[in-house]
Design a protein that fits this description.
With about 325 residues, the chain is α/β, with parallel strands linked by helices. It has ten helices and eight strands. Helix 5 runs parallel beside helix 8.
């Protein structure tokens, strides 16, 4: 029996790019169905994440015209990660496997069939990994690569140069459902599932319409969320720094006592002020890091729903 494949595509203000995306994905799925590569029950699911343009109107139109298209409308904007999770959790019992990808199609859709090959060879999770970023701007390439290196350094187990382009089997999706975090960082959560995994390399393309949903400011915020959701390494850094400062203060105390008893005491106004500002800044920084973790604990204990589905349409 052919594999039932679902493509899950989160959409936020994608009115400009959606017509091109719908056409390209429909052609891909139709071709694979005709060749018997996947089941005729396979579908493309667009998840509208509270878009302010005509994204949802387009999705409704496509579901009426194209049997391959389904649409999910969230009750409000919940962010890319929650929209992606909403799509995956909605389709997990309808498919054998699901591939998540962005609406801008910068990730080469030609890799989908290669992911299917890996799935049929027994892989429960297949990561789409960018082989090169030659079409990215120098700034985008540097910040993106820095993001992955920094995340790994800070203790977050992420796949280098992998975003959210991946295949997950039904079994893996059901295991993903057991992760109840409100603060979602799927790039770090999915590797925790384990199982047999595979990797498919592809070349990242250029976004033709609209703007990137991950500018530098959002990328930094995303990194902070990922690190504090997956690792306590920042707190350990602060603890280590505190111990080092304690030893430094003991050395300075011994030095000051020696200077005092040898009659070389001097007015140390500059060093005193620098020390006060330095220690004060460190304390505020430490409180901020700890506060970030406490804030996440606060949100997790509320157990609020990560998404609310308003409509699910399509055949």
């Amino acid at each position: 029996m052919s594999t039932v494949l679902y493509l899950v595509v989160p959409c936020y203000n994608e009115e400009e790019t959606l017509p091109t995306t719908e056409k390209a994905l429909s052609e891909l799925m139709s071709d694979m169905i005709k060749r018997g590569r996947i089941s005729e029950n396979s579908r493309i699911v667009f998840v509208n994440d509270g878009s302010k343009d005509k994204t949802w109107e387009l999705i409704e139109k496509y579901t009426e015209e194209n049997i391959l298209i389904k649409g999910i409308k969230l009750s409000r904007n919940k962010g890319h990660q929650n929209a992606l999770l909403a799509g995956l959790m909605t389709v997990k019992d309808e498919c054998d496997c699901a591939v998540s990808l962005d609406a801008d199609l910068q990730d080469d859709i030609g890799a989908v069939e290669k992911m299917l090959d890996e799935f049929e060879d027994g892989c429960e999770i297949v990561y789409g990994v960018r082989s090169k970023r030659e079409k990215d701007t120098l700034f985008k390439r540097a910040t993106a690569q820095g993001f992955y290196k920094f995340m790994r350094f800070m203790g977050a187990d992420v796949i280098y140069d992998h975003a959210d382009y991946r295949l997950m089997s039904r079994r893996a999706l059901h295991e993903l459902e057991n992760f109840k975090e409100v603060n979602l960082f799927l790039r770090g959560i999915v590797p925790m599932i384990g199982f047999k995994t595979g990797t498919v390399m592809y070349e990242r393309g250029v976004r033709e319409y609209g703007e990137s949903k991950y500018p530098l400011k959002k990328m930094l915020s995303f990194a902070v969320d990922g690190i504090t959701s997956l690792s306590i390494k920042p707190i350990r850094f602060i603890t280590t720094l505190g111990v080092l400062l304690l030893f430094a203060s003991i050395i300075m105390l011994a030095y000051s006592l020696v200077r005092h008893f040898t009659g070389h005491t001097e007015l140390g106004w500059t060093s005193l002020i620098v020390s006060i500002w330095g220690i004060g800044g460190l304390q505020l920084f430490a409180i901020g890091v700890v506060g970030e973790y406490i804030g996440k604990i606060y949100l997790e204990t509320k157990e609020r729903p990560r998404f609310i589905i308003d409509k699910y349409i399509g055949k």
